[in-house]
Amino acid sequence: MGSVLAGVLQFLALIGALALVYVPFGNYMARVYSAKKHLRVEKWIYKGIGADPDTEMTWPAYLRGVLAFSAVGVLFLYLLQRLQGVLPGSLGFSSVNPAQSFNTAVSFVTNTNWQSYYGEQTMGHVVQTAGLAVQNFVSAAVGIAVAVALVRGFARSRTGELGNFWADLVRGTLRILVPLAVVSAVILVACGAIQNFSGIHEVGQFMGGSQQWNGGAVASQEAIKELGTNGGGYFNANSAHPFENPTPFTNLFEIFLILVIPFALTRTFGVMVGSVKQGYAILATMAAIWIGFTALMMATEFAHHGPAFQAAGAAMEGKETRFGVGASSIFAVATTLTSTGAVDSFHSSFTGLGGGITMLSMQLGEIAPGGTGSGLYGMLIMAVIAVFIAGLMVGRTPEYLGKKIGGREMKLAACYILITPALVLVFTAASMALPTPPHSMLNSGAHGFSEVLYAFTSAANNNGSAFAGLNANTDWYNTMTGLAMLLGRFLPMVFVLALAGSLAGQKPVPVTAGTLRTEKPLFTGLLVGAVLIITGLTYFPALALGPLAEGLAS
Amino acid sequence: MNNSVTNTARLLGAGLRALLVLTLVTGVIYPLVVTGIAQGLFGNQANGSEIKADGRVVGSSLIGQSYNLPPKKGQETPDPDLKWFQGRPANGLGSNSVNTQYKLLLSGATNLAADNKVLVQQVEDAKAAVVKDNSVPGYTVRPSDVPADAVTSSGSGLDPAISPQYAELQVHRIAAKNGLSVAQVEKLVEDHTQGRTLGFMGEPRVNVLELNIALKDLAAKQ
């Protein structure tokens, strides 16, 4: 069997596995967020928090919950790193410096997991498991909670009530993420991922002498790193490291974990708004973009243009033998179309156009299928924009799911889609214009510019992957990517929740012959078009200077 | 004003309590439970899949090693020990720069772009070396025979495997250096070649450490 065919079969197997769990898992998540009853352990937790899980919140109250919880999370994780030097169970690793601690704390709380540090030499057991891995869970749960609040905004009428943030946070963590993570972690260990709390292993070598490697709770972190679309590796090489991703099977399994919640949430959405067909339309949009981008990525990576790859005979630089070009391409697209940022191969050494695809995937806003929760709310915002465009064409007030898309709704949606590109382009331009930030580039020319563009694209979209040649551990990049991550995560959430509140307050518009049928393939086509055109127009000049220039020259 | 300060404080307090409770669940209980199950059921894997040969641990089957001669005086990069199968280049592998009480393996890739002259040079140099090292009397390696994994660095710098093509290309050299027949070494490579999982996942590969351990046994028996 050829490598191309094997790559295609792996992709088909992935589609099959995701299709198999789509309905039951999506329905389950809908039940989780609709159930009236609380588990006993949840009641204890609510008592501990001091919150009544049955109090309905308006959108400002829900937002305040999100912001307060996240602010405390940043502070806690910052202090944990600053105090590492005196914490027991830290392998004697020293404290992390202030700029890097800030960057890392923000990075994990915003579900970005951008890493300006080397995992294996910087973070001890306590910070990894009780700090970083905790945010892997709760930042994902916060994302899903905000998405569910928006869905309730569509589903409910004549009310300001969007649910209870604490209940959504705790349920998402306890009923969805923790059980799945336990099972997944054990599967990963069975295949070779490590899971221990021992110190540094000093192990003999074949040729004599010894090598030292870290022990650690790797599998447990790996499972939630993928499942929560986080992406922060225990080791610097992330999912290319054999202890994180030991076999071809674990590789495919990790891609499955990355995609399973974001795709299944479209089912949850369909169930909660009372029309699973609406969920299918959103799913079809996400799947079309995902399949198309994966096909393009495989085509360019197997074609291996570029002087070094022509000399080598294949684009194997930065890729592992056990995965090869096909599986690495599937992983790269999945990780950048979601907000994951885990890598099983290094994007900086992809072909010029392949690197461009990873960047464009993030620049779409990570909505196909996107991060846990953030993918769904991002795509629903695009759906609002798409019905607005359709409304302009026929001269009718646009509606979506029985709600009028008026001036207020459009302003919020427009703010949402403007904020991230603004952050990416302004920070990139500033880094290029100032005298010292360009010194961080490893490669020169178009690829050097791509490193900076990639960094801020990744940060503002909360992805976390990198063209990792860039030396990001400087005060400038630690501070500025930190700001981009913060603003890129929470400003969009403000607009999403405000939109949810505005929609929930409306009374539903009856469906008439003139209503745009948003569950039909025509709408899916319109939505794919809207996503590609809006992103294309926004980023084309920047992409032309970086990956397009590099890709077309080779 | 006073009221909003109190409200904010109350909200942050709730956030802190939520974080602490969830840290207990996901940051303490979860990793301990997983570690318990892992150590109980899959102790070998959970501790790094260590391999023993001649009664001592010689590494992990998952972590690639270098098979080099001791560096000569003034030499920056040691020469490969051609008696043993060679793994992939690892130009992205580093050594640790903080917490230097340890000498940790720092996994990583080169991150060099396809059009970077440094990378082109690395690939060409590696190719020339593979051709030179593996051409033995009666067997000449052509540059077009050299597979890509032999001349590129992996993502982790710790790739434990090479392609079957690269292993086969080394057979004649290994046979000559160890006083074995080509057929014996070919059989060895064949026995250590892993196909795709279930016939379609990943790529076929040969684990270099396991192969070299078997080679050492075979050479000792001769």
Provide the low-confidence segments of chain B as ranges. Answer: none
Please tell me how large the radius of gyration of chain A is: 23 Å
- Major β-sheet annotation of chain B: 3 strands, antiparallel
Uncertain regions spanning at least 5 consecutive residues of chain A: none
State the distance separating the first and last CA atoms of chain A.
Answer: 29 Å
Question: Order of strands across the widest beta sheet of chain A?
Answer: 1-2
Shape of chain A: globular
Overall average pLDDT of chain B = 96
GO molecular function, one term (chain A): potassium ion binding
Keywords (chain A): Cell membrane, Ion transport, Membrane, Potassium, Potassium transport, Transmembrane, Transmembrane helix, Transport
Membrane topology (chain A): Multi-pass membrane protein
Family (chain A): Belongs to the KdpA family.
Structural features, described:
The complex is a heterodimer of chains A (554) and B (222). Chain A has 554 residues and is mainly alpha-helical. Chain A has a domain of 182 residues. Chain A is built from 18 helices and 4 strands. In chain A, the strands form 2 sheets. Chain A has a two-stranded antiparallel ribbon with strand order 1-2. In chain A, α3 runs antiparallel to α17 and α6 packs parallel to α17. Chain A starts with a helix and ends with a helix. In chain B, a hairpin with a 2-residue loop joins β1 and β2. The interface between A and B is large, with 128 and 108 residues. Chain A: It is a multi-pass membrane protein. Chain A: Keywords: Cell membrane, Ion transport, Membrane, Potassium, Potassium transport, Transmembrane, Transmembrane helix, Transport.
